[in-house]
Amino acid sequence: MAVHAMLHGQEAPAGAASALWWAGSFSASVLVSGSSYLVLRQLPSRWTAAVALLLAVAGAALILGPIAFAAR
pLDDT tens digits, residue range 36-61? Predict the structure, then answer.
């Protein structure tokens, strides 16, 4: 997640607009994380575990996918 934040940091505008951009990014992150937590909290624990596994597999595919293409 830190690398993701650093990459977005390179998109941030310079100067006074930077503070507003970071505040918006932080607010959006809190909104997405908080709403995800509230939705997943309402689901049965088996569903939550399935979603966690799905996200882990998708993350692994995103990380390892470029390596598979580079090996060609």
Answer: 899 888 989 899 899 889 999 999 99
Structural contact between residues 51 and 36, judged by C-beta atoms closer than 8 angstroms: no
CB-based contact 15:22 (threshold 8 Å):
no
Torsion over CA of 68, 6, 23 and 34, rounded to 10 degrees? 40
State the Cα–Cα distance between residues 12 and 22, nearest whole angstrom. Answer: 7
pTM summary value: 0.57
Question: Dihedrals φ, ψ of 30, to 5°?
Answer: -65, -40
- How much is the pLDDT for 31? 95
